Amino acid sequence: MTRLRQHSVIPGFGLTLGYTLSYLSLIVLIPLSALAVKGGAQPWSQFSEAVFDPRTMAAWRLTFGTAFIASLINAFFGLIVAWTLVRYDFPGRRILDALIDVPFALPTAVSGIALTAIYSQNGWMGRWLQPLGIKAAFSPLGIVIALTFIGLPFIVRTVQPAVEDLDPAVEEAASLLGASRITALRRVILPALQPALIAGFITAFARALGEYGSVIFISGNMPMKTEIASLLIVTKLEQFDYAGAAAIGLLMLVSSFVLLFLVNVGQWWSTRHLRRVA
Amino acid sequence: MAITSRHRHSEPVWMRSLFIGASVVFVGLLILLPVISVFTEAFRKGVAFYITSISDPLAMSALRLTVVTAAVTLAANLIFGLAASWLIAKFSFRGRNVLLSLIDLPFAVSPVISGLVFVLLFGAQGWFGGPLANHGIQVIFATPGVILATIFVTFPFIARELIPLMQEQGAEEEEAAVLLGASGWQTFRRVTLPNIRWALVYGVVLANARAMGEFGAVSVVSGHIRGRTNTLPLHVEILYNEYNFSAAFAVASLLALLALVTLVAKAALEWRIRVEERPAVMDGVMEEVA
Fold first, then answer.
1. Which one, out of A238, B50, B166, B191, has a CA that is 20 to 30 A from the CA of B142?
2. Nearest to A196 by CA among A226, A230, A166
3. What is the distance in angstroms between the Cα of A44 and the nearest Cα belonging to chain B?
4. Interface list for A 42-71 with B (CB within 8 A)
5. How far is CA A178 from the centre of its chain?
6. Per-residue pLDDT tens digits for A1-28
7. Which of B10, B26, B157 to mutate to test the interface with A (most CBs of A within 10 A)?
8. Is B93 helix (H, G, I), strand (E, B) or coil?
9. Where are the domains of chain A?
């Protein structure tokens, strides 16, 4: 195509192009480039001090570790929930299905204080965990719980369509060839769901890395112990350390871009791969 | 839905019960319990206390800022969503896919960073902070900052609903209208708008929930000035940090109610959109049969 655009009788190309690009630049591109410049254009020594000092390193370990564990828990239960919702009929199925979207819709501050109330030592769950010696609220476990809450819909809503799209002929073939149902699940169905499961896992993980509202109430925010990376940005801003905040923010932004890029590449690869197989 | 008799090779009963049981317990404990607890905690000190808490002047001013912010945000993103989807769906031009990915960018940016970028632009040491302050304009720790951050986090919502639908619908109807002598505006209002109205409402409903409930981004830019730059979610945080738990949950219950209403509206709209799309699906089936 040599021309910039194909001819069309419909009016409004110039107007909508101009408006879309201006608005996009003002709201998204210029602000994000401010982060790239403020974060990236500082002396390396200053950048590395902001990003690698012991307190920040502890926050990175905590943020990535809790996000990873929460996403693993969600991958396991999310797969079961997605399978159950698509394949079985039981009373309350539609309510269960609707509940999955609650973490999307509920403001994170509300989830945060509700989870804290439940898991603090007098709460509905906390009072059972306390005698077992498990401290849920104000500990890394609390952060894992909050991130599991936030991440579940990402896995379920990614795996659900994949379960719906499973080809019944394949399952039939496995059964006709004498595979037991459990073997079929393990050897035929699970591999077919794997791409969706991985995509859901990475999306939930990326979301968990940046989560703030639902975590800061239940975490207790103790430096070196239960302080997540997002909170560190807020702390630095409150101390007017803009460069330090921008450095941490830039690194977080780059990690989530890389993760979501991987998801897109994976989806592109699996559709192309599947098409070739078909 | 996919539950049909075609799944003859189903799991043994014990396994099916195990899966259903695990799902119900997991979702019940993880998701349902917090929702219930919001309302029980809100009414712990009785109905009178609940009503006092939500009608408190500071809560009311937070509600006012939340509603104003959501209204401005939705209007701005609605106009953008219509312009962008018209551009992307009705014309084919170079760089269209790049533009699509750029529109999605804010989805990949975490809440605190969505606020941070505006502090870097308009804060005291920001690019535009100094010059604007000289003219007496304050963005950060003021309403404009709250609105900007909210626009940013909800930026893709409406466009994201409209673009795929309008791409699927193609440009033939609009081309016919223009060739029959309709103006661009008439074409949009009489031809395009009726075709996309439910998707439009759907996008607005989802964007509204996020706009009214946003916490991280708004928290960074607002400065938490009570009665002035406090939104409802921030008000919840302040009350909670003052150990005024019942009042915090009372205000939180308003937001939880908004979330539940949003989910019901979302389900109703999805049903509506499916119903409206059914004739088109049937056409496809008929073509395949023929």
1. B50
2. A166
3. 19
4. none
5. 39
6. 446 677 788 999 999 999 999 999 999 9
7. B26
8. strand
9. 61-227
Please indicate whether, in this complex, the C-beta atoms of B31 and A100 are within 8 angstroms of each other.
Answer: yes
**Contact between A126 and A120 (Cβ < 8 Å):** yes
The total domain count for chain B is 1
Query: At the topology level of CATH, where does A61-227 sit?
Result: MetI-like fold (1.10.3720)
Pairwise CA distance, residues B220 & B260, whole Å: 27
**Position with higher pLDDT, B76 vs B134:** B76
Whether residues A110 and B252 touch (CB distance < 8 A) is answered with: yes
What ipTM goes with this model?
0.92
Which residue's entry shows tokens 């991280």? B216
Chain B interface includes A102 (CB < 8 A): yes
**What's the pLDDT tens digit per position in B217-254?**
999 999 878 888 999 999 999 999 999 999 999 999 99
The closest of B195, B93, B5, B156 to A7, measured between CA atoms, is: B93
The one-letter amino acid code at A275 reads R
Give the range of the structural domain holding residue B89, as residue numbers without chain letter.
47-276
Stretch (H or E) spanning A190: helix A190-210
User: Does residue B39 lie in a domain region?
Assistant: no
